[in-house]
Every structure is written in structure tokens, then in C-alpha cells.
Amino acid sequence: MSIIKVMNKRTSIRSFNTEDLSSDLLDKMKVIIIKKRSGPFGSRHNFSLIDINEKKLNELGKMTSYGVVKGARYYFAGYCDPDDRSLIDFGYCFQEVVLELTELGLGTCWLGGTFGRSFIAKALSLPDGKVIPAISPVGLPLGKRTTTDKLVRYIAKSSNRKSHDQLFFNHYGSEGVKPIGAEVENGPLSKILEGVRFAPSASNKQPWRFIFKEDHIHLYWDFNEKYNAAFKSFNIQALDMGIALCHLIKSTDELELMAGFIDEDPQFESIPWKYVASLKNKVVV
Ligand SMILES: Cc1cc2nc3c(=O)[nH]c(=O)nc-3n(C[C@H](O)[C@H](O)[C@H](O)COP(=O)(O)O)c2cc1C
């Protein structure tokens, strides 16, 4: 299936079918989860499959999702250093897993807040100085959403996405940014815009901002000081930036428009956001 279609199909699943997975599906799921991956900034990540029915893990205590997730037996999780670049790479790699599992027909849900960290820390034998930024349940979707799921989606306004003029910009020197014009919106990059717009983000805040300039797409972070400070040891929105990079790179790649990843701030004037990274593509705007 086209990766852009997978991005559009993915939605957070919090209600799972409790029937056993076939051994074939279980094997495919395991291969995806434990595969070693590396992010655009070069840090390597691999994730562990956690079977909460496993006797040995049961002895560690109880997995809690504060009632948000129902019926999931399997979760995947990993850890990383707490700096922004490691978290961006973690977000990128974790989202790769999410997309590959979605393609298999499996449901997932990024959980950065609503899970008990101590059980997962014990299950992963968390080394000193590392953080567990997020975990996800994985399994066959139940097919309908529970009341709690509906409530979480209502609070986060999960079905909404910011409009193009809130996310995609051109840059005009000292005048700063202005929303992109119809020539970008309807041109060869339009599928990429939709791919990144439907990415998941913590509390659906969508902190990604994209500036289109000549043959470059620059990614910026509309950093929310208060929201990031709520997670004491790391910036949760760095994961969102990794997810956005994952959608940006994979959709550009699929359309054969990718011409390189760039880690150098163009130092544009009058930008209210934090620079993350850029992509060189084959379309000049
Ligand atoms: C980094 C991150 C952390 C998240 N943490 C939680 C969480 O703790 N609990 C939860 O129910 N959903 C969580 N979500 C899911 C978002 O609420 C969801 O992606 C967003 O509302 C958009 O909905 P969608 O994924 O169905 O498109 C998280 C998503 C991301 C990307």
C-alpha cells in the first residue's frame, strides 16, 4: 500500500479485540517492532514487545493506562536520552513502526502521558539517565470506540487538523512568513502536505510549521513552553517533530521528490519558531 495512504488511514486505536492474534500476524508484528532503526539525526533505536500476560512480567506489577486503553495484551516501548535530538529520532523511528503496523491492519496509539512508567521501566530494565518517552498498545482494533476513547478524542479534538494556512508558509525576508499560495497547495507537493497534516501529535497540538523556499522544505517547532514543562525530564513535543519528519521524508521519498536531508538552520529573519531540519526536494516553488 502507498505510504501516504497508510498515513491517511492511521488513527489512534484505544479499544482492542481480545481474541488471540494468528501466529503469522504475531510473527510479522514482532519483526517490525524489534527491528533496529535509526533516525535522521543518526541515533539508533530499537523497541521491545511487552506481553502483559507473560508470567514473568506479571510479577513486576501491573501495566496501567488509566483506563484509556481497553483489551490490549501487547505493547511496544523503548527508551532514549532525554535531549531533543534523541527524542526527535525516537519519534521518527517509533512512527515508522506505527505506520508499518497500520499497514498490517493492526491498531496502535501513541501514549506519552496515560501510562504507568514504573511498570514499563522495570519491564525494559531502564538504564540510568534514559527516559521512556512513549509506549503504544498494538493489536486488532475492536472496530468501535469505547466511551473513554470517545471522551479522550473529544478532549483532544482528535478528528480535527489545523488548516493549510496555519501550517504551511513561504518566507519573505524581513516581512517574515505568509501562508503558501495555491501554486504550492495544488502543485506536485500537495500530497506531501496531506501526509504531514494527518500525523498524530501529543494532545493533537500539531506544533509543526513548514516553510517552503525554492527547492527546500524547512521544518520548525512552535514550541509550547508550558506544555513541554509538564513532562519534567524531556520535551514531549520533540516526539511530534520526529513524527512530522517521518511523514515528510517518507512521503517525499515515495513521490520520488526527495533530494536530501539537511541539518543546517537557514537563519531566516523574523521566524517565531524553533528550527528543526530541512529537506531538499526536486520541486522549486
Ligand atoms: C507524542 C504523543 C503522545 C500522546 N500521548 C497520548 C496519551 O498519553 N494518551 C492518549 O490517549 N493519547 C495520546 N496520544 C494520541 C493523540 O491524542 C492523538 O494522536 C491525536 O489526538 C490525534 O488523533 P489520531 O491519532 O486519531 O489522528 C499521543 C500522541 C502523540 C504523538
General description of the model:
Helix 1 packs parallel to helix 9 and helix 4 packs across helix 11. This protein has two domains: 150 residues, NADH Oxidase (3-Layer(aba) Sandwich), CATH 3.40.109.10; 118 residues, NADH Oxidase. It contains eleven helices and twelve strands. The chain is an alpha+beta fold and 285 residues long. Helices cover 35% and strands 18% of the residues. The chain has a six-stranded mixed sheet. Strands 3-4-6-5 form a four-stranded antiparallel sheet. 40% of the residues are buried. The longest helix has 20 residues. The mean pLDDT is 95. The protein is globular, with a radius of gyration of 19 Å. Bound molecules: flavin mononucleotide. The site of flavin mononucleotide has 22 residues, from helix 6 and helix 11.
